[in-house]
C-alpha cells in the first residue's frame, strides 16, 4: 500500500484547551508520546504517517489539524486524546451531521459514513486487543462530546475534514485504574500495537470503499 497516508493528531494545545491533567499525568504529554509510538509502529509496515504538529506543545487549531489531513489526502485522521470524569476506558467518536463553522458547512455525507465505519472497526480491534485490561465503550458521535454538543453536533476538526475522522479518548485520567494502565510499559506496548493493527485494518477498509 505505497500510496496510503495516515494522519495522526496528538490532541492539544488548540483553541479549546491546553489538555487535561490528573493524578500526575498530562494529557498533552500522553497524546504526544502515544502518537509518536503509533507512527513508529506504522513505519515498520511501510505506511506513511503525517503528524499534525512537530513538537509536543505546538499550538495548532482544530481547523488546521483537519486541513493537514486533507492536504495529505489521508485515508484517516486519527485524533488521540485522554478524557476526564467519572468514567473508564476507551471511547471513540465520529461525526454524523452537518454544522456551519467559520463559513464552512460540513463534514460531507461520505466523510460521516466512512468515519462511522472507521470508528466501529477500530473499536472492534481495540476490544480484542485490550481484553479486560481496559474497557472499550460503545462508539459515540461528536455530539456526545462537550464541545460537539455545545457547537450543535460536531467537533471543529470534523466540520473541516474531507477525510474519515475518528477521535479516540484513550483513557480517563481521573480513573486510577486507567492511569495505571496507560502509564505502564504494558499499557504503552498495547496502545502501540493496537495503533498499528487499527490503522492497517482501516487502510484496507478505505481501499475497499
How would you portray this structure in words?
The chain is α/β, with parallel strands linked by helices and 209 residues long. The chain has one domain (5-208): Zn-dependent exopeptidases (Aminopeptidase). Helix content is 44%, strand content 20%. It has 7 helices and 10 strands. Strands 4-1-5-10-6-9 form a 6-stranded mixed sheet, with helices on both faces. The chain has a two-stranded antiparallel sheet with strand order 2-3. A hairpin with a 2-residue loop joins strand 2 (21-22) and strand 3 (25-26). The longest helix is centred in the last third of the chain and has 24 residues, at 185-208. The mean pLDDT is 88.
Give keywords:
44% helix, 209 residues, two-stranded antiparallel sheet, globular, Aminopeptidase, six-stranded mixed beta sheet
Fold topology:
Blueprint: E1 5-10, E2 21-22, E3 25-26, H1 27-43, E4 48-51, H2 62-71, E5 76-83, E6 91-94, E7 99-101, E8 104-106, H3 109-130, E9 140-141, H4 146-151, H5 156-160, E10 165-172, H6 176-183, H7 185-208
Parallel strand pairs: 1-4, 1-5, 5-10, 6-9
Antiparallel strand pairs: 2-3, 6-10, 7-8
Helix pairs in contact: 1-7, 3-7, 6-7
Widest beta sheet: strand line-up: 4-1-5-10-6-9
Structurally, the number of domains stands at 1
* E-strand count: 10
The CATH H-level superfamily is: Zn-dependent exopeptidases
CATH topology: Aminopeptidase
Residue stretches low in confidence (pLDDT < 50, at least 5 long) are: none
Q: What is the number of helices?
A: 7
The gross shape turns out to be: globular
Amino acid at each position: 500500500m505505497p500510496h496510503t497516508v495516515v494522519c495522526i493528531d496528538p490532541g492539544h494545545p488548540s483553541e479549546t484547551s491546553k489538555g487535561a491533567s490528573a493524578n500526575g499525568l498530562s494529557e498533552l504529554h500522553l497524546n504526544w508520546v502515544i502518537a509518536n509510538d503509533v507512527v513508529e509502529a506504522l513505519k515498520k509496515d511501510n505506511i506513511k504517517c503525517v503528524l499534525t504538529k512537530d513538537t509536543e506543545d505546538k499550538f495548532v487549531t482544530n481547523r488546521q489539524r483537519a486541513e493537514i489531513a486533507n492536504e495529505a489526502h489521508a485515508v484517516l485522521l486519527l485524533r488521540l486524546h485522554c478524557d476526564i470524569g467519572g468514567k473508564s476506558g476507551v471511547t471513540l467518536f465520529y461525526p454524523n451531521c452537518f454544522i456551519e463553522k467559520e463559513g464552512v458547512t460540513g463534514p460531507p455525507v461520505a466523510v460521516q459514513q466512512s468515519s462511522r465505519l472507521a470508528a466501529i472497526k477500530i473499536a472492534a480491534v481495540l476490544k480484542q486487543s485490550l481484553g479486560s485490561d481496559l474497557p472499550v465503550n460503545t462508539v459515540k458521535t461528536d455530539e456526545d462530546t462537550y464541545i460537539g454538543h455545545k457547537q450543535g453536533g460536531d467537533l471543529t476538526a470534523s466540520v473541516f475534514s474531507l477525510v474519515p475522522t475518528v477521535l479516540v479518548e484513550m483513557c480517563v485520567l481521573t480513573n486510577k485504574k486507567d492511569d495505571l494502565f496507560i502509564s505502564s510499559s504494558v499499557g504503552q506496548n498495547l496502545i502501540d500495537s493496537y495503533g498499528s493493527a487499527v490503522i492497517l485494518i482501516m487502510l484496507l477498509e478505505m481501499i475497499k470503499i
